[in-house]
# Entry
Amino acid sequence: MSVTSIMAPPSSIPPASRSVARRVFDRAVATPGFRVGIGIFIVLAVATALYPELSGIDPIKMDVKARLLPPLLIGDKWSWAHPLGTDQIGRDMLVRSLVGLRYSFLIGIASVVVMLVIGCALGVIAGYFGGRTDAIIMRLTDAQLSIPMIILAIAVLGVSRPTIPSIVLVLGVSNWPVYARIMRSVVMTERQREFVRAAKIGGSTDLRIIITLLLPLLLPSVLFTSVLDVARMMIFESTLGFLGLGVQPPTPTFGNIIADGRKYLLNAWWIATMPGLFLGLTLTSINLMGAALERARDTIHAGGE
# Structure
């Protein structure tokens, strides 16, 4: 290694694998599964963002005269004004399902962001500095993993009215150790590479090395994995709502809509089925995208490109 390269600032020592994220994304986009998944996801996202406002229908407004209308073309009491039917007090199921999907998106993505911030920060610190710092953070990780998410949710959300920030915090805090362990193991390997040693010899601080060299190298791979965790957090959010620990009525979420609809499965099956259908389509689209990204990443890391 030349003297010039040793004394260069970290920004001029780009890791050879810094373009891996782009290659992974390009390979994933070329697969049919990813295209189908992102197509479904875009349609749902656009519908969620626009239809509730454009329709002018209030998702919590009752209309007893229109109660228990079936979806279009089912039975003899359907209405064009409510294409997916209405619930037991006349609220439109299409709008309620899309608003529920909006909250599920929000909580799922925000929870993963919390997981990434906490897990990646602690994992990088543990892997880079090692020693006692590593031991303390890993024991904290073990302690967190020993607490089931549902127990933490009951402890935090059961003593007060659940809100979106508190739900996001519970989901994020319950699941950050996975990212901490991943980042720790990778950083322990990457810190021994030549470009990191060159940056240290050049006088770069530990903070600068972490921010400018390690994080740009490691985050893309973790972000691809986190796509699947968005789907997992949406399932957890719906579970909490079903148990009464999620966002509280009258705000519509998948969990509380399905919980209300289970009482009417015999004579109004669409109340529970429609939000379940939207949730299933959303999870399928996210899983298709996440699986394609993971396969592309594993192929490239294995030298398949």
Q: What stands out?
A: Residues 93-129 form the longest helix (37 residues).
